[in-house]
Specification:
- With 427 residues, this protein is an alpha+beta fold.
- Among the domains are: 2-44 and 97-175 and 266-344, FAD/NAD(P)-binding domain (3-Layer(bba) Sandwich); 179-264, D-Amino Acid Oxidase, Chain A, domain 2, CATH 3.30.9.
- 36% of the residues lie in helices and 26% in strands.
- The structure holds flavin-adenine dinucleotide.
- Flavin-adenine dinucleotide binds at residues 7-13, 30-33, 39-45, 123-124, 156-158, 162, 181, 262, 265, 281-283, 289, 292-296, 298.
């Protein structure tokens, strides 16, 4: 009998397994992939996520893996070129963008070192129910099907979460698809971390391991059908048009690896808890990757889940469910702000009022600091959009006006296949 089975062994699942194992729980962590394993991501982790890695003792290994620290943020928008220090927290001064096959593997290693059992190439098939509660799982291992009882089943199995489907976790909030994204990897390019924003376009350059720079290009979702016909051409053309300096730097560089992209970056919150089960990471909540919040959110949720369960007797079903409910409420509370900021930016509307706001912000070092800190999740929106700011800059009030209610992009229920996901081969 395990205390907890965690399905999915990346930033949400491996972190949850690590923290629960450190509480002295018996934990089984499973993933259908063989590790180390890569996944779709542009890799950037904001300082609040880095602070958690530091707190858990994993950051030193990330730094030792050769991943460069990202000490500044560049922003090229509305005639402005800003470079600011990475917004810091008391526990993290810089950001990192580690390759996922490195980061996720380090987290799994830390979970195993803390006492968790890890089974790779092992898939969740069914939930075992007893008296209306999740009481374990049926898994397919390389040796065959097995039943594993557990007091708690945690789904950290990503956007297409099988656990969410099996427990019938409804969507609590869904918003329409906002962007589509394609990214490429380049060697021998001098690049620091930064964004280039233009109307209908958002481009990010992200240095990672081995001298590689990831370049991600975001387009409005309504251009996806057209762009996916020749995504590489669209990717290179938007860099040329909207980030000409970066385009010049790429001219002498070597493109490595495949172009990768997706038009299916859903925006949702699912119900995250039920009798004997919980969801964390993308399984619980997903948002457009434009603000690079997914990894930090997943790490945050692992910490919230571990905090909620601290000291709880898992044999006390009522007590356990109350703690899971607390975890879910704290998650909705914590993740609501980045969700709102992300959806605003993901509309890719560089309106006159937003451009005016950014120009005004750029004139004040303090507002600039607070703006970037808000985007990084270091401060809350309320600490940036103060009444004083709205009085000083009416544009701030207009920019933050609530979005029109969005129609759900797809019906609630088990998610379908990744219809829009496309990869192409290197040139
Ligand atoms: C294009 C793109 C770019 C992104 N860029 C960034 C970025 O720069 N910064 C950032 O913070 N976030 C980024 N994100 C988001 C980030 O990658 C995710 O939020 C993050 O990976 C979520 O981690 P997770 O552990 O919840 O889920 P995942 O990383 O999706 O991991 C889920 C795991 O569950 C396993 N699994 C699934 N089903 C089963 C099953 N039935 N049985 C067993 N195992 C199973 C999978 O094999 C997988 O290993 C990006 C996302 C996209 C799509």
């Amino acid at each position: 009998m395990y205390d907890a089975i965690v399905v999915g062994a990346r930033c949400a699942g491996a972190s949850a397994a690590l923290l629960l194992a450190r509480q002295g729980r018996r934990v089984l962590l499973v993933d259908r992939m063989k590790f180390p394993s890569d996944t779709m991501s542009t890799l950037y982790i904001h300082p609040p996520g880095i602070a958690l890695l530091a707190r858990w003792g994993v950051l030193d290994a990330v730094a030792a893996s050769g991943c460069p620290p990202l000490e500044t943020v560049g922003y090229d928008v509305a005639g402005l070129r800003l470079t600011v220090p990475t917004p810091s927290t008391p526990y993290a001064r810089v950001a990192y963008a580690p390759r996922r096959q490195v980061l996720d593997h380090l987290l799994v290693g830390a979970a195993v070192a803390a006492g968790a059992d890890f089974a790779e190439r092992t898939s969740l098939r069914e939930v075992i129910w007893r008296d209306g509660r999740a009481a374990g799982v049926r898994i397919r291992t390389p040796e065959g099907l097995e039943s594993v009882p557990a007091k708690l089943v945690i789904g950290a199995d990503g956007r297409q979460s099988r656990l969410a489907a099996l427990v019938d976790a409804p969507f609590r909030k869904q918003d329409e698809l906002a962007t589509c994204v394609y990214y490429s990897c380049w060697k021998n390019v001098e690049a620091d971390f930064g964004y280039h924003e233009r109307p209908d376009s958002w481009i990010v350059r992200i240095p990672t391991h081995d001298g590689v720079t990831v370049v991600a290009t975001y387009f409005p979702q309504d251009q996806f059908a057209q762009i996916r016909l020749d995504p590489l051409a669209a990717h290179l053309e938007t860099i040329k048009q909207n980030a000409p300096d970066l385009h010049d730097r790429l001219a002498g560089a070597e493109r490595v690896e495949r172009l990768v992209g997706t038009g299916r970056q859903q925006n949702y919150f699912r119900r995250m808890n039920g009798p004997g089960w919980a969801l964390a990471g993308d399984a619980a909540h997903h948002l457009d990757s434009i603000t690079a919040r997914g990894i930090t959110n997943a790490l945050t949720q692992a910490q919230l889940l571990s905090d909620a369960l601290a000291g709880q007797d898992l044999d006390d079903a009522g007590g356990l469910d109350a703690r899971l409910a607390r975890f879910a409420e704290e998650s909705y509370g914590t993740l609501g702000e980045p969700y709102k900021t992300t959806l605003e930016l993901a509309r890719l509307r560089l309106t006159d009022s937003r451009a005016a706001l950014l120009r005004a912000v750029a004139r004040s070092p303090e507002l600039t600091r607070r703006y970037f800190a808000m985007i990084a999740g270091v401060i809350d929106r309320s600490e940036f959009f103060t009444p004083e700011l709205a009085e000083l800059l009416p544009a701030a009030a207009r920019w933050t006006a609530p979005a029109e209610p969005a129609e759900p992009a797809e019906p609630a229920g088990p998610a379908g296949p990744e219809r829009g996901e496309v990869t192409t081969t290197p040139r």
